[in-house]
């Protein structure tokens, strides 16, 4: 049997920009900020890494470093880590930090990469098992459903549901088991050499893509379709 595992953020989907994120929440909550203040707040939120799936923090303060390292192991840790980073940036209403966190989980905050549908559908039509393996603190299944990609995904292995994060091989093992797949005949596709590269410990092949805005990466997933036939051969 052959299978392909995909990371979520930065691989199949890209989260909106930090400025778009803040603008959407201000509009949803009926708040307003002068344009210079809005842009400055967006820059500050990006610098502290407040947007899940967005830019990494320029620096993780010593106090929350332990929490940050484990942030994807549970819903509670994820919320605490990201709202804690967000609250390092003054906003006109403290409730905006919780509203920002809620916004990033909405399907509207995410855009599939242009070739994601084609690749997932082609794998599905070939009978190739597909799983999403993600370090995440919330359920992305509604995002896949809203964008019409859920029918092409057979299983989800999410860190917060299992209390373990990539690169720990156990999370990849969960995905392979859900698909009934031999890891030696499985391909892992992701954007992080550190996190997604952990699949190699199980014997999976690993293919990396760049974490770029969706418009700047129209076809980086297409090579996956050329790699899949190789997975059907007997493992060495």
UniProtKB/TrEMBL annotation:
Gene3D superfamilies: HAD superfamily/HAD-like. It comes from the Bacteria. GO terms for molecular function: hydrolase activity. Signal peptide: none annotated. Coiled coil: none annotated. Keywords: Hydrolase. InterPro entries: HAD-like_sf, HAD-SF_hydro_IA, HAD_sf. This is HAD-IA family hydrolase. It comes from Streptomyces graminearus.
